[in-house]
Design a protein that fits this description.
The chain is mainly alpha-helical. It contains 4 helices and no strands.
């Protein structure tokens, strides 16, 4: 992780956890809801949604990826 941060010119104090939060924030900015992001939804399901959240379809995952790609292309 330290090497990746160095070559990316990112602060050395970043952790995978902090990057996950950044990713989630960027997804929200791109208009992607929590339920559309499988990895984030899976991580949060155990802590914040004890009764579970709706299943995420393949199409929802594809749309979320497109929205994120569009955001990154326009930065």
């Amino acid at each position: 992780m330290a090497r990746l941060l160095r070559v990316s010119d990112l602060p050395e104090g970043l952790t995978p956890h902090s990057l996950r939060h950044t990713h989630t924030s960027l997804l929200a900015e791109a208009g992607v809801g929590l339920e559309e992001n499988y990895e984030t939804a899976r991580a949060h399901r155990r802590r914040h949604y004890p009764q579970g959240i709706p299943d995420v379809t393949k199409q929802m995952k594809k749309e979320a990826a497109k929205k994120f790609d569009n955001l990154m292309d326009n930065l």
